[in-house]
Specification:
Elements lengths: L4 H6 L4 E5 L6 H11 L2 E5 H9 L1 H12 L3 H8 L15 H7 L12 H20 L1 H10 L4 E5 L10 H10 L1 E6 L2 H13 L8 H15 L9 H27 E5 H5 L4 H12 L1
Helix pairs in contact: 3-4, 3-7, 4-6, 10-12
């Protein structure tokens, strides 16, 4: 959706898709706007876990539970049930399912299983983004005209113009570009707390080959999952940056994370967006 600054300012319905790495300020922006007006907050990662990966998440948890004789018996006779209690603020079940690649004795996943789950996540994210128009209509039916699509950091990895075109037709795509300081913070956070992430298949294969060679490993099963997650994150950041830029240049607008963090209210956020439109 391409608008002039005046058109955006006067629009009665403000619909945004937030693009950028996790931790760059997407949720911060959404909360600033929601403090002063009513917005339908569509969390891409929540939708992925609650709808499209829900059954896979549950089956994975049940498989672990069945390794215990007592729990297996209770599950088999339906004495207990397992639920995916995912929330907007707690997406741990999605992360646990996605997992990290590497030595199973250190909590890693075998490469074939890791790739399978990565593919499931990609398809789930694809479907989740295609659902955006439906949820815009749902918001309207509830009397909420404003809409925020808080997309996951891996949206840029879909490399599917159909998705980006659909989002640009129904929302304003707003790329929150990380400053150097912000990038350093993201990297430090990833080093301190390495977490499961989605990697584009071709990128992952190339990085695995390089990591194995650098460490003189023969098999992926020799990899420490956390160490690999720490090593790959800065490379993932550099890999995604041009993808974000390309989407914003073709379909949306760009604001800087440092400028966003200076905003104290919705009016200041809107002025920042309007500035990107001039």
């Amino acid at each position: 959706m391409r608008l002039s600054a005046d058109e955006f300012k006067n629009a009665k319905q403000k619909r945004l898709t937030l693009l950028g790495m996790s931790g760059v300020g997407k949720t911060h922006l959404a909360k600033l706007l929601s403090k002063e007006d009513q917005y339908f907050h569509y969390s891409g990662d929540y939708r992925i876990g609650a709808r499209y990966l829900n059954q896979d998440i549950l089956e994975n948890i049940k498989a672990h539970a069945r390794q215990d004789d007592c729990l297996r018996s209770l599950l088999d006779n339906e004495s207990i049930i397992i639920q995916n209690n995912i929330t907007f603020d707690n997406l741990s079940s999605v992360s646990a399912f996605l997992g990290k690649v590497g030595n199973p004795e250190l909590g890693g996943l075998p490469i074939d299983e890791f790739i399978r789950r990565q593919a499931l996540f990609r398809q789930a994210e694809f479907q989740t983004m295609l659902d955006v128009p439906k949820f815009i209509d749902k918001a309207k039916s509830q009397g909420v005209n404003n809409f925020i699509n808080d997309a996951g950091g891996s949206l840029c990895e879909l490399d599917d113009n159909k998705v980006y075109q659909l989002l640009s037709e129904h929302t304003i795509i707003l790329y929150i570009r990380a400053s150097k300081v912000n990038e350093e913070t993201l990297i430090k956070r990833a080093q301190a707390h390495p977490k499961p992430l989605y990697y584009q298949a071709e990128f992952l294969q190339k990085q695995l080959e390089q990591y194995l060679a650098e460490n003189k490993f023969t098999y992926v099963a020799q990899i420490d999952p956390d160490e690999f997650a720490r090593w790959i994150f800065p490379r993932l950041l550099e890999h995604r940056k041009p993808k974000y830029e390309a989407i914003a240049q073709k379909h949306g607008y760009t604001i800087d994370s440092e400028d966003l963090y200076q905003c104290k209210n919705a009016a200041e956020v809107f002025r920042l967006i309007e500035g990107a439109m001039t």
